[in-house]
Amino acid sequence: MSTLKVDVHHVTRVEGHGNIVVDVENGELTQCDLQIVETPRFFEAMLRGRAYDEASHITSRICGICAVGHATASLRATEQALGVTPSLQTTLLRKLNFHGEILDSHVLHIYMLVAPDYLGLGSVIPLAKSAPDLVLRALRMKQLAGDLCATLCGRHTHPISMTVGGFTQFPKPADLRALRERLVASRADCDATIQLLQGLEFPAFERDTEYVALHRDDEYCFIDGSIASSDGGIRPLADYREVTNETIVAHSSAKHTRHQRESYMVGALARFNINYDRLHPRAQAAAEALGLRPKTINPYLNAAAQAVEVVHCTEDAILLIDQLLDQGIRHEEPAAPTRMSGEGVGAADVPRGTLFHHYRIEDGKIVGANCIIPTGQNLANIELDMRALVPEILDRTQQEITLALEMLVRAYDPCISCSTHMLDVKFV
Amino acid sequence: MKPKVAFFEFTSCEGCQLTVLDTLQRHPELLEVIEIVQFREAMTERSDDYQIAFIEGSCTRPSDEAKIREIRTQAQIVIAVGACAHLGGINAIRNRMPLDDVREYVYGDKKDWFETYPARPLSAVIKVDAVIPGCPIDRDEFAMAVTHLLQGRMPAIPDYPLCIECKLTENVCMFLRGQTCLGPITRAGCDAICPSCGQGCEGCRGLVPSPNLGSIKDALRERGMTEEQIDARLSLFLTYQTMQMDGVTPA
Q: Which domain holds residue B93?
């Protein structure tokens, strides 16, 4: 096809509003944009003047899918700024709660947003009739993830009992034991998820890029840690701006980022590529079964990396519950601030990638705020993927090209309302 | 014939629609009695032939008004879903700040590239037939709303304060625990989930009819809150309403 115009207005089965716009004239790619047409949200401006303990309640509202992730990064930023050292129990409860969010989000993405494309369907709804076991499994896994968060923080969207320095309610040991039993039973659903992905034909597209994720030596990192790149180098969280280098582009109300190359990728595949060694052995076995090794450079396989993380988080959640039950749940007061002014950066590797919250606090009030969202960091990389992909598939029909582009964008699991401080496919 | 239902979202976190998906997962029988013809976040299939529109999100730019009016013209029943659509919600916090300053803080000298205006609830743009309050909405209340609609009546929401549900839940009053709470002026219906999790109510379900604002402010002052802290608490979800009570409606 020497002339091609694709214009997908409001890409479906993603969070928020984006357009894919591709224009090929006489075999030349003249335009290839992922337009972010979501309304600007202005959260950073709205945080100014608010009390430090309101920030996590406001910023969880940035996103319904990663509300726990935003609350976690927000609390860590505030705690860094005000010299708060949470207890071991708080750290364990936050990690366990975070696994609930990763499980919920990844299962939603794999089963409800991605799988229909590979099965030739428009949504999960017809799947309920053609493959009821598959849908029931997804629902069972999501319900477990949601109940995990509800037990720890009241509800997944939006968490209630997470607060600066700790929690305002605590799970009963009996509730944790019941969750543990369901997580153990969920291993069969994890295995079936891996089998499902083994059966999907992922497009063969590859493009090497820089991968960025949080990293710790002692665990597969989701909270805190340092910023690691597949191109080398580990930086402290405080230096996040040297990694993200935000710029504003006209076709996107979400800012773009770049680090050592023209673009970089964050998310499950980036974490997998960087932190593979720290995955639970069962998760490594799942990766092996999927033929997934670091470094994998096919962005469509982000969903496969998510499935590996589903296995990891299920296993690690069991271990965390054991540790919590062993040491006993204490109804402790949140750790108190040691100062009322300061500056702090909090980071969490949420389902879609690395999230930064950065606050400056004076006399207990937020005077400056910056939030850098995973999808914003992925936008430039998605566009470069699109630019590499389109010439490779120009011999296909417009419908096939459009679907390949939509599937590419969906592979990143973009979260657009989050990133507009992000998606539709548009071939003009 | 099953009623045709469509879901839309404007400025929001889409958390209420996720809660809707969650409700449909837990109550798959709902899918037997309604036909979902449009739900961008969950499905590619779409039709503009619908009778009931559920809308999440606030209107925060002039160009969204036309789309919202179009939905109103098509739908026989429009339901505002969640605090952003119902109240303006979190989005309206910035309504008390100079708009230009807010734009410049986030987008710098490119501030004019991205259209915006003060955040407002759906009811400021179109007639809304019913609301499902909350940030996010309550699963059971959404299921109940659908049940009511199938029975041919508008969804009914409580018109009494949260304190009643909180007492029924047997929580110790947040004020007696030395904390503060907007329960006395906030519409019930969430089973007092925040106080049950150790946090005072933040008013996300909106004000009860005829709220005694003077009295709640006195109670908050007695607990040592400054005027500024009281205003901040009342502005988390209630900025649009309290500005309206002060006679200020954004242009």
A: 4-150
